[in-house]
Automatic annotation (TrEMBL):
<dbReference type="InterPro" id="IPR045074">
    <property type="entry name" value="GST_C_Tau"/>
</dbReference>
<dbReference type="Pfam" id="PF13410">
    <property type="entry name" value="GST_C_2"/>
</dbReference>
<dbReference type="InterPro" id="IPR045073">
    <property type="entry name" value="Omega/Tau-like"/>
</dbReference>
<comment type="similarity">
    <text>Belongs to the GST superfamily. Tau family.</text>
</comment>
<dbReference type="Pfam" id="PF02798">
    <property type="entry name" value="GST_N"/>
</dbReference>
<dbReference type="GO" id="GO:0009407">
    <property type="term" value="P:toxin catabolic process"/>
</dbReference>
<keyword id="KW-0808">Transferase</keyword>
<dbReference type="GO" id="GO:0004364">
    <property type="term" value="F:glutathione transferase activity"/>
</dbReference>
<dbReference type="InterPro" id="IPR004045">
    <property type="entry name" value="Glutathione_S-Trfase_N"/>
</dbReference>
<dbReference type="InterPro" id="IPR036249">
    <property type="entry name" value="Thioredoxin-like_sf"/>
</dbReference>
<comment type="function">
    <text>Is involved in the conjugation of reduced glutathione to a wide number of exogenous and endogenous hydrophobic electrophiles.</text>
</comment>
<dbReference type="InterPro" id="IPR036282">
    <property type="entry name" value="Glutathione-S-Trfase_C_sf"/>
</dbReference>
<protein>
    <recommendedName>
        <fullName>Glutathione S-transferase</fullName>
        <ecNumber>2.5.1.18</ecNumber>
    </recommendedName>
</protein>
<dbReference type="GO" id="GO:0005829">
    <property type="term" value="C:cytosol"/>
</dbReference>
<keyword id="KW-0963">Cytoplasm</keyword>
<dbReference type="InterPro" id="IPR040079">
    <property type="entry name" value="Glutathione_S-Trfase"/>
</dbReference>
<dbReference type="InterPro" id="IPR010987">
    <property type="entry name" value="Glutathione-S-Trfase_C-like"/>
</dbReference>
Length: 226
């Protein structure tokens, strides 16, 4: 492993896609870390002290120095353990900019439309969110074709920055698919992403930390019951 025990700690919660991003990045780099699970509905003193601005997970503690925000943590892990494993971001400045752009797009466009399906109060609102989600995925399908250069992942031959950004939502995407009775990563609409999603979830760095759909479904029902 690339870190001594106790050197790296991650404050988070198992259902969070943002926490999952940090966990996948650490796994890709072979970094040993302690996972500090926050209790749902509570904020520990360590969390509040480590992230006094947003007071949210995830927070990476490296030698007790906090790093906040999921994709910032991913970049930090890539740089701090640059000699371990494969690079998460490309070395070329333009390529790095492209990967960052699509990661932002995922959070700004894909994430709101996907969760808009679950939050919709009417069939019209649901249909609108579904169309927005599919439109976003169509653009991401095109981005995958360009960024992957014919290989398995957005990052090429291995999981990269955009893979982590989008892949962390796949567990919740499956929940929303079941709840709404539809298919987001459709083999006909986005064939490249449909295959990519299965490949991402089966990756060694992902499969042990990706939440089970059934557990996420139970968690979603609990949230809706509140």
């Amino acid at each position: 492993m690339a870190a001594a025990a106790g050197e790296v700690r991650l404050i988070g919660g198992w259902p969070s896609p943002f926490v999952l991003r940090a966990r996948v990045a650490l796994n890709l780099k072979g970094v040993e870390y302690e996972f500090l699970q926050e209790k749902f509905g509570e904020k520990s003193e360590l969390l509040l002290r480590s992230n006094p601005v947003y007071k949210k997970v995830p927070v990476l503690l490296h030698h007790d120095k906090p790093v906040c925000e999921s994709m910032i943590i991913v970049e930090y892990v890539d740089a701090a353990w640059a000699k371990s494993g494969q690079a998460i971001l490309p070395a070329d400045p333009y390529e790095r900019a492209l990967h960052r752009f699509w990661a932002v797009y995922i959070d700004d466009k894909w994430f709101p439309s996907m969760f808009g399906i679950a939050k919709a109060q009417t069939e019209e609102a649901k249909a609108e969110s579904v169309e927005q989600a599919w439109a976003a995925l169509k653009l991401l399908e095109e981005a995958f074709e360009k960024l992957s250069k014919g290989k398995a992942f957005f990052g090429g031959g291995t999981i990269g920055y955009v893979d982590i950004a989008l892949g962390a939502y796949l567990g919740w995407a499956k929940v929303i698919e079941q709840m709404a009775g539809l298919k987001l990563f459709d083999e006909e609409k986005t064939p490249l992403l449909a295959v990519w999603a299965e490949r991402f979830c089966a990756h060694e760095a992902v499969k042990e930390v990706m939440p089970e759909t059934e557990k996420l479904m139970e968690f979603a029902k609990m949230l809706r019951g509140k």
